[in-house]
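During the reporting period, our protein records have gained a structure token line. One record among many is quoted in full directly below:
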Amino acid sequence: MAKYRIVFLILFFLCSLFSKKAVAQRYLSDIDSSFFIKDTVRPVLKRFENLRISGYLQPQFQVAQEKGAASYNGGNFSAFSNNRFMLRRARIRIDYFLATKDGFPKAVFTFQVDATERGVGLRDVFVKVYEAKKHHFSLTAGMFARPFGFEVNLSSQFREAPERGRMSQILMPSERDLGAMITYDPLPKTARNKLFKIDAGLFNGQGLSGTTDFDSHKDFISRVTFKPQKLKKWELSGGLSLLYGGWRQATKYVYETQTSTTGDKLYIVDSALSNIGKVAPRHYYGADLQVKFKHGWGETELRNEYWRGSQPGTATTSTNPGTLPDAPTYLRQFDGGFFFLLQHIVNRNNQLLIKYDWYDPNTKVEEMEIGKPGTNFNATDIRYTTWGIGFLRVLNENLRLVVYYDIVKNETTQFTGYTGDKKDNILTFRFHYRF
């Protein structure tokens, strides 16, 4: 009899978790504060009342322009395939909350994993502790999202386009990192400065691409968020972001883009022995703005974001490394950003998506200067632009369908294989289910 009673309690607990309307965090660093203002779990489940389980599933089918297409839309295609089914994301998130007597958050522990055909990986493991007197500050420690930019922090549960832009994926791979962060975010309704949220933290720098920190240098990352402000039918929000860090140079060879005495741009090497062990500067500066207009059909929204700065890399990549590169360092000045228009059609269940994004890994060179004999410029220095056009259909509160076409353009250069535009456009059909 006791065995059946235990089974009944487990089933009842699961039903109470999954029968509620799906609620989740829109931004990776946010916690749903509504969880703390409740006491809905029956006494028999009292021990579970602070536990929340959520997740989402993204099965999809894609078609590329040609077999073996390189892509930032779910990864490169295999050499003999131009179409594929894949499970892009399948995530389970567990949050355990503690609240103060007056209903404000006291602490939260979060654990999230991603399990697909490519393997099982950790996404979030962190604890967030709140200052319990005035409820203005919190401290986060563990593996969590870097507080930089709007697109990086917009959760994949709510992002309308299938993927983040090329720049976001190269400069902020996996979005997360190991570190600690202090947040100023006044929670009481009567608090001053509720318009602002300020995050500032120190991070290892390699994100989820490495298993351990490979040097002593940390990235300082900070973001000032201007929370949404309503002006009649308009709503405005935005933010300013900063990343100041770098990683250890393993060799004495440091290449930078300069102009020669003949007027040609080329990589010039500095080979001083003192370069070994110096910090290769990794400095990002970002700004973003979101504007919404509410009307009879729903909303028209425009999102804008721009980054620029310096990015260390190697001759063949500008992606942040997971292990210390045992190769010459290449210092490049970059910029990039996106414009994203979202338009409801007839009602909130139908949405048109139009996005333009670009990433220029080396702003000091362009087009036919790349691949010119003697300059050493190659595919890593090529600027990419992407037009994304899509349609999103909300089928119910848990399920939506996205059809999205990426039109990818690379600079025309003298470098072999990039003398014209690559055939790397991608069509994506995706179901998105969340609970």
Notes: The two ends are 32 Å apart (CA to CA). The domain at 2-434 is CATH 2.40.160.10 (Porin). The chain has one domain: 2-434.
